[in-house]
Structures are given as C-alpha cells and as structure tokens.
C-alpha cells in the first residue's frame, strides 16, 4: 500500500456524497416523522424508510471505514496550517463516532420490542436483545446526538467553503473531482 496520494479515488468521492445525501435526508425525515400523529398516512411508512436508509448508511459507513484503512491517505495541501489539519482530523473522527452512536441508538430504538428491522423488505436485521423501557433513553440519545452530528456536518461544510472561497485552495475541488474556478 502506498503511503499517500494527491487526490481522492472515485470510490471515496461516491461514498462521501452518497453518505452526505443520506445524512441530510435522514435528518430531515427524522425531524418530520417525529411530528406525525398516529392517524397520519405516513405514520408507519416514514419510520420504515428512516430505519431502512439508516441501515444502508451504516453499511456504507462500515465499507467506507474499511476503504479508509486499505487505501493510501490523501496528502494534505501544503497551505494547510497544523491547527487546520488537527481540527479536520478531530471533526472527521467525531463524525464517525457520531454515526456509530446514531446507528447503535437507532438500532436499540427499533428493536426494543424484540422485533427485527425490515430493510425495504429486502432483508431483516435481527433484534439481538429485548430492552424493555430502554427505547425512550435510546430515543433521547438518538435525538441529541443527531443534532450534535448535524452541527459537526455544518462545521465540515463551513471548513470546505472556507478553503474554497477564502483560502482559494483545492480542498473542496478534490472531493468534487474537478477544478473549480
């Protein structure tokens, strides 16, 4: 395995942007679905979609972490300050930790009654244990970690925009896969 490369591979770019779309979609869907009342026509369907897309995001994240381990790292730009590199690394790892907590808490909410999670009716993720009265705690964790996670996503976006518009470096364009003017 080579130690570094100058740009991101297509697979990393695809996983990054697919994950970004799923995260924004799941957060938006989550905000909307918790406001639905029992008689709303989406009351059963929205959580099913939220769980299904959440499981797909979890699988993509595991795959992404595996690729991160086996592929060479992308060389930071020379213009990046040491503090910027350190902050970027911390935020990236906090994003992964946030996703892990969201996956675990979402799983615990969804399987608290002992039922498996049906993923688009393609396959099921079994309930490994039954946690009576723990779904409320898991729901609270899921909610507040989701808000914190979106805050980190916004910091990540602001950092990319800062590099593009203020520093005028290639940080953002390397993840897009093309030069921006």
| Coarse morphology | elongated
Q: H/E series, N to C?
A: EHHEHEEHH
Mean pLDDT over the full residue set? 88
In percent, how helical is the residue content?
55-70%
The biggest beta sheet is recorded as: 2 strands, parallel
Under CATH at level 1, the class stands as: Mainly Alpha
Low-confidence stretches: none
SS content category: mainly alpha
Subunit arrangement of the protein: single chain
- The side-by-side strand order for the widest beta sheet comes to 1-2
Radius of gyration: 19 Å
Total helices: the number is 5
CATH architecture label: Up-down Bundle
* Overall number of structural domains: 1
Total beta strand runs: 4
Which fold name fills CATH's third level, the topology?
Answer: Fumarate Reductase Cytochrome B subunit
Q: How far is the first residue's CA from the last residue's CA?
A: 33 Å
Residue share in β-strands: 5-15%
What's this entry about, in short?
The chain is mainly alpha-helical.
SSE map:
Elements lengths: L3 E2 L4 H24 L11 H26 L2 E2 L7 H30 L5 E3 L3 E3 L9 H32 L4 H6 L5
Parallel strand pairs: 1-2
Antiparallel strand pairs: 3-4
What would you say this structure looks like, in words?
With 181 residues, this protein is mainly α. The protein is built from five helices and four strands. It is elongated and about 55 Å long. A hairpin with a 3-residue loop joins strand 3 (117-119) and strand 4 (123-125). It has one domain: Up-down Bundle (Fumarate Reductase Cytochrome B subunit), CATH 1.20.950. The protein has a two-stranded parallel sheet with strand order 1-2. The protein is 65% helix and 6% strand.
């Amino acid at each position: 395995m080579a130690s570094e490369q100058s740009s991101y591979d297509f697979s990393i770019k695809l996983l990054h942007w697919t994950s970004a779309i799923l995260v924004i979609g799941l957060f938006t869907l989550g905000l909307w679905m918790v406001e639905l009342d029992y008689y709303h026509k989406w009351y059963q369907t929205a959580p099913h979609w939220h769980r299904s897309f959440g499981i797909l995001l979890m699988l993509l994240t595991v795959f992404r972490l595996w690729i991160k381990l086996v592929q060479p790292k992308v060389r930071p730009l020379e213009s990046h300050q040491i503090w910027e590199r350190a902050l970027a690394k911390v935020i990236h790892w906090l994003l992964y930790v946030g996703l892990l907590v969201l996956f675990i808490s979402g799983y615990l909410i969804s399987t608290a009654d002992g039922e498996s999670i049906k993923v688009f009716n393609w396959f099921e993720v079994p309930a490994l244990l039954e946690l009576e009265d723990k779904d409320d705690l898991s729901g609270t964790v899921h909610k507040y970690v989701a808000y914190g996670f979106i805050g980190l996503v916004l910091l990540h976006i602001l950092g990319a925009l800062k590099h593009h518009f203020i520093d005028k470096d290639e940080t953002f364009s390397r993840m897009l896969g093309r030069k921006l003017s």
